[in-house]
UniProtKB/TrEMBL annotation:
Keywords: Hydrolase, Lipid degradation, Lipid metabolism. A motif (GXGXXG) lies at residues 13-18. It comes from Algoriphagus yeomjeoni. It comes from the Bacteria. A motif (GXSXG) lies at residues 40-44. GO terms for biological process: lipid catabolic process. This is NTE family protein. The keyword Hydrolase applies. The lineage of its organism: Bacteria, Pseudomonadati, Bacteroidota, Cytophagia, Cytophagales. PANTHER family: NEUROPATHY TARGET ESTERASE/SWISS CHEESE D.MELANOGASTER, SLR0060 PROTEIN. GO terms for molecular function: hydrolase activity. InterPro entries: Acyl_Trfase/lysoPLipase, NTE, PNPLA_dom. The active site is at 42 (nucleophile), 154 (proton acceptor).
Length: 267
C-alpha cells in the first residue's frame, strides 16, 4: 500500500554531527519513507538542500569526505567574526547551480536567526545559497550573512528543530536531532565546558518542539563528536543509519508512511 500522506522532515543543526542525518535519510528512504517537505537548521539546512536537490545520502557523504570545506573560508576583517563564509558560496554553487528554492525537487525551508531583531527567519523561496550559509553561520566564529537589511546567524540560536514550517502543511512530522549528549563525568577544559553548554542550550529549544513531532529520531551520544571532526564522517553516517534501522524496528507504525522509492529523484 502506498502512503498518500504529506510527510514533513525537520533536521536539526549540529556541525559535523549533521552527517548523521545522512544515515537517517538512507535508512528512511531504503524503507520507502520519502519526505514531501523538508525543513532544516544549520547542518540540517545543508543536508536538506542537497537531499532536496536530488542527491542520494551516500553521494552527499562522498562529496563531504572529498571536499576540503575549510579551504573556502577566509579571515574576516571584522569585530563580529574571525572568518567570512562568502567564499563557501562558491562551493555550494558547484552542487546547487540554480541557486533557487523553486528548482529543488522537494520543497525546503531553512531557519536563520536575525541577530538584530532577535527573531527566527524562515526562507523557502528566492535565492537558496545565502540563506543556507546564514543558517549555518556560527555566531562569533563567522561574520553574519547579510540578506537585504537583515544580519543573519545560525538558526540554531533560536530554533534548532524547525518544525513550524511543517506544522499545518504536513500530515506527519518526523524530527531528527543530531546532538544527543552523553553523560560527562569530567569536564577537563574550557573548550569542553563551552561546547557542552552550547549543545545543551540548543537541545533545550529542540526538546521544546519534540511534542510537535509524530516521530522523533535521535541517534545516541552524538554530542561526543567535535563540531569540526570531519574525519569521523563515515562513523557519523553509520551511527545515524544503524540507530534509524533500530528505531523503525521498534516503531513499526512508521512503515505505514512508506511509498515506493521515487526514482525520479536523481543527482
Amino acid at each position: 500500500m502506498k502512503s498518500k500522506m504529506k510527510i514533513g522532515l525537520a533536521l536539526s543543526g549540529g556541525g559535523v554531527r549533521g552527517i548523521a542525518h545522512l544515515g537517517v535519510l538512507k535508512a528512511l528512504t531504503d524503507a520507502g519513507i520519502v519526505p514531501t517537505k523538508v525543513s532544516g537548521t544549520s547542518a540540517g539546512a545543508i543536508v536538506g538542500a542537497m537531499f532536496c536537490q536530488g542527491y542520494k545520502p551516500e553521494e552527499i557523504l562522498k562529496i563531504i569526505v572529498e571536499t576540503n570545506y575549510f579551504k573556502f573560508l577566509r579571515p574576516a576583517v571584522s569585530l563580529t567574526g574571525f572568518l567570512k563564509m562568502d567564499s563557501v558560496g562558491t562551493l555550494f554553487k558547484l552542487y546547487l547551480k540554480h541557486d533557487d528554492f523553486s528548482e529543488l525537487q522537494i520543497p525546503l525551508t531553512v531557519a536563520a536567526t536575525d541577530i538584530k531583531k532577535g527573531k527566527v527567519r524562515y526562507y523557502s523561496e528566492g535565492e537558496l545559497i545565502r540563506p543556507i550559509m546564514a543558517s549555518s553561520c556560527i555566531p562569533g566564529m563567522f561574520d553574519p550573512i547579510v540578506i537585504g537589511n537583515r544580519y543573519l546567524v545560525d538558526g540554531g540560536v533560536l530554533n534548532n528543530l524547525p518544525v513550524e514550517p511543517l506544522d499545518g502543511t504536513c500530515d506527519i512530522v518526523i524530527g531528527v536531532n543530531c546532538n544527543q549528549l552523553p553523560e560527562e563525568a569530567n569536564i577537563s577544559n574550557m573548550k569542553k565546558l563551552i561546547e557542552r553548554s552550547v549543545i545543551m542550550a540548543m537541545n533545550y529549544n529542540v526538546y521544546s518542539r519534540k511534542a510537535k513531532c509524530d516521530y522523533f529520531i535521535e541517534p545516541p551520544a552524538l554530542g561526543k563528536y567535535g563540531v569540526f571532526d570531519i574525519k569521523k564522517a563515515p562513523e557519523l553516517f553509520s551511527v545515524g543509519y544503524d540507530h534509524t534501522i533500530k528505531y523503525i524496528e521498534e516503531n513499526p507504525s512508521i512503515l505505514e508512511l512508506a511509498v515506493q522509492p521515487n526514482k525520479s529523484i536523481k543527482a
